[in-house]
Amino acid sequence: MTTTGAIDALTVAKATVPGAGAPKTDARVVRRRLGPGRRIRFAFWVGPILLLAVWAIGSKVGVINPAVLTAPWDVAQAFQDQWVNHDLGGDIAASLERAGLGLAFGVVGGTLLAVTSGLSRIGESLIDGPIQIKRSVPTLALIPLFVAWFGIGQEMKIVTIALISMIPVYVNTHNGLRSIDGKYAELAETIGIGRGEFIRHVVLPGALPGFLLGMRFAVTSALLGLVVVEQYNATSGIGHMMTLAEEYGETDVLVVGLVLYGVFGFLADTAVRLTERRALSWRRTIEG
Known about the structure:
- With about 290 residues, the protein is mostly helical.
- Helices cover about 75% and strands about 0% of the residues.
């Protein structure tokens, strides 16, 4: 069999890698069993909009005490005040830079470690054990040690976010690599293709769902780390703004910060989900 024919055979096999889902007709049957109804476009916006409506109605009728949770229109006014009279734009840019750099380092590191560990028994013996030990130690508990190593500047914050976001990428990508059925390796040996082609055309595509799932967790973890590290001697950023607001008892500004964190997390998760939908368009799942 020629190399081209081998790759074509593996392309067919790739579409049936575990986790790729059922055929389209089976998915339709499952959807009918779950209940009638057409697919809602942009359905992931429904929940946040409903939550905002409940918040606004509760504040309007007095169910939600303003001393406990500021009304959304007051939060919007506080946002405008922070934007016009303070450096909210600079704070947002500083926070996004920290989160973006930390997430990028974490994703690259987690992916490289997962691929090395998942495709090599020697790599797994050297890497997987320390990673599992790290999983049992909360990264936030290591912040005092990072402060001693890197100081309380930007480096400590980026390293903390990178470590927090690296773990879910590693775990899910590694699991995706290890969960591919061994029969595809036997097929590769039978049709006589090389290890490199097998990895490119079957192994890595088969691990892509796990990687993207890890990305969704990594985005959330990066924002969680951002919230914490910005409490450490930050002179800019959303966390710095919230720290000042807490000192002066400005509840509305605190809610502005919380809303910004939530919006960033939601938009980042949405971006990963849309990427997943495009990258895994060859899958046939219950989502259709």
